[in-house]
Structures are given as C-alpha cells and as structure tokens.
Design a protein that fits this description.
With 462 residues, this protein is mostly helical. The chain folds into 3 domains: 121 residues, no CATH class; 98 residues, no CATH class; 119 residues. It is 69% helix and 5% strand. It contains 12 helices and 5 strands. It has a 3-stranded antiparallel sheet with strand order 3-4-5. A hairpin with a 2-residue loop joins strand 3 and strand 4. Helix 10 runs antiparallel to helix 11. The chain is elongated, with a radius of gyration of 45 Å.
Amino acid sequence: MFRARGLSAALLVVGLWSPPVRAQEPPSPVLFRVFLTDGRTLTSFGEYARLDDRVVFSMPTRIRPEPGGFQLVSIPTSRVDWQRTGQYADRVRAAAYAATRGAADFAALSSDIARLLNEISATADPAARLAMAEKARQSLAEWPNNHYGYKVAEVREFLGMLDGIIAELRSAVGQSRFSLTLTAPLTAAPEPPLPPPTDAEMVEELMTVATMAEAPSEKIGLLQRVLDMLNSTMGLLLPEAWSNRVRKQVVGDLTAERRVEAAYAELRTSTLEASVKAASRGQVKDLERLRDNVEKEDARMGRRQPGDVEALIATLDTQIDAARQMKVSREQWSKRAPLYRRYRRAMNSSFSMFKSATNPLEQVRAMSGPQAGDIGQLSKRLAGAERKIAKIVPPEELAASHALVRSAWELAQNALRLRLQAVSGNSVTGAQQASSAAAGALMLYQKARTDQLAVMEKPAHQ
C-alpha cells in the first residue's frame, strides 16, 4: 500500500512556502528602459508607446527623492534595440508583480496544492490518487510561466519531491513505463531591474535624445532642459568639473541650433515674401529660381530642418503649378479674345436695350406698373432686339449663357404682354402671372451676364 511519508514531507514543504501575507506599501512608480542599437540606454517613466515609426515615452528629469520633472520625447523606432528593450520590460513587470501581487498569489497557490495533497492522503483508490497528484503537478508546473517566473526555484524544489510521489503512485497501479514531461519547461527566474539612473546619467540621456530630435524646436527645448538641470544641481548633486564640461557643450549646441533656426526662419520668410509677389505676376521662372535657392541653401546649412524645408518647397511647387496653369489660361484667353470682342460689339445694343427695360420689368414684378401706353412701345423695341439676337452665333464657350439671354428676352416679352392684358381686363391673376414672368426674366438675364463676364474676363493672377 502507498506510504504517506512522502506526502507528509510535501505538505511540510508547502507549509513553509506560505508565511503570513503582510500588507505591503504601495509600489513606487516603475522605470522602464529603452535600449538603443548603439548600446546607449534611455529611461522611460512607465511603459513606452509605439506610434507608426516613432517611440513616445516620458523621461523623468529628476529621480530623487522620486521621479518627476517629466519630458515627453519621441525617437525613431529604427534606433531601438527591441529585443533587449522587450526583455527588460519583462524584468520590470516581473519586479512590479513580485512587489504587489506575487506573495498573495503564491500563497493562494500553496493553499490549493496543500488541499490537493490532503485529499490524496484521504483517498483510498490508488488510481484516483495518481490522477489527483498529476493534476497538482501540472498546476504547479504551469504557475511560474504564467506569473513572471515568481518563486520558480521553490516550485522546482517541490516538483522534484512531487515527481517521486507520482512515481510511487504509478508503481502502485502497475505502471512501469511513464514520462513526467507533462508541461512546458519552467521559465527562468527573472533578473532584477537595473538601479535608477544617476543625475549625471539623466543629463546624458537627455543629450542623447536631443541628437535624435526631428523638429529644431524640440531639440532646442531638450537642450534647454539639460541646461536648466545643470544650473539647478551644479555643485549639489553633480560633480562640478563634470557639470562645467557638459554645460559648456550644451551652451555651444544651443547657440549653434538657435543660429541655424534663425537662418532657416530668415530663408523661409524671405522666400515666402518673394514667392507671393512672383506668383501674383505669374512669374514661373522666378518661382523656380526661388525653389532652387531653397534647396541650395538647405544643402549649405547641412539639411538640418527637413520637415520645414519640405513644407516650404511644397508651397513653392503649388505656386509654380498655379502660375503655369494661369499662363496656359491666359494664352488660351488671348486666342479667344477677338471672338469675345466681336460678340460684345454684336450684343452691346441689345444689352443696352434690356438695361433700359429693367426698371419697367421691376414695376411689372412689383405689380405697380408701367402704364399701358408705355408697354406697347417697349414691347416693340424688345421684339426688334430679339430678332437681332437670334441671328448672332456666339463663341462655343458662350453658347449656354447666350441661350439664357434669349430665354430672358422671351420671358420679358411675355411679362409685358401679360401685364398689358391684366391692365386691360383688370385681372389680378393676370398681373400675378406677369409678375412671375418679369421676375424670371430679370433673374435669367443677371445670371447670363454674370456667366458671360466670367468667361470673357482675362484670367487674373491670384
């Protein structure tokens, strides 16, 4: 019959695992590390975030007495050693787990295993004992892999004892050949996180980030933050000789960056002012020369602001395209201008005629006039002009608006005819119909003239 000596020893070991769980202090904020491909390291307060081709995180600028003075930074993902960074993040998470939930979770596991061992001792059926022991072993072996390797050494020790118990139980049920490889290999115990960086290391990290900044304003801001840190801690937390050397370097870098920033700002301002003038005159070659000058000056200054220069060149390209299109439009207009002048000459008298009829038509629309004696004479003049308009063949691009002119003419004649009938018959309905026709005539004529002027006007530079 199976002896309970092994189970008693196992229960004793499990009991030793489970000291009372004391209330723990709230964990301090964790510091992650971002490892660069060149071997340098950056400190991240909390976890970093990957956004497209950038890594964004908060760098503390003060570690003692607690992390603070945070600086949000963004660096290219291509500069990050992701294998080392990911492995270190696991170490930090494991340490945070051990400091918070680890002890309580392991105590709960110990209680579950002890309960199963007690049940095994109280079970008479050998096959049931074996199944229960194998279940306990599997739960125990899987636990470290799912809990950041916490207490993996203790788990390995007990698994050795439990394997001996399972071997005896299997012999008791007649199993002579068996394997104990029931689960994946146990994870290794995690290494503890690195100690917090010193103040000098924080300064060097910020200087490293400054070399990777894309925007000049971001780089200047980072260097200024380093300078502020040096000024506030010089002679207190940082070695004076080291601080003086680094401060001299930072001041030099800041001066150089501000000089470059001023040079690019001047290039941007002068280029935009000149481009507006050249674009207003449609001077394509002048705009192209400005574009070439921007590229030449950018190269001379070391291509230090690629984003700003790209935006400036894009603006110039837009102006160049607009100037080229305007040049083509003006050339096309020049070819068509004689046709427009011929059309104007043919239509001028008719346009003057309709203009003189505008006031009487407004009276018809308002149902306030004109007198019956005036309507007949006006109708004759409009009819004569309409016959003249019908013979005019407009340029192709004026065909639609010319058709609107003819429609306006017909509505105007109808409005006068209906008004005369309404006056003669004293008909309010007839006056209303005449009013609608007059309103339509005035509206169509205004639209036709607006469309024609838009087509015939010489294209102007914006």
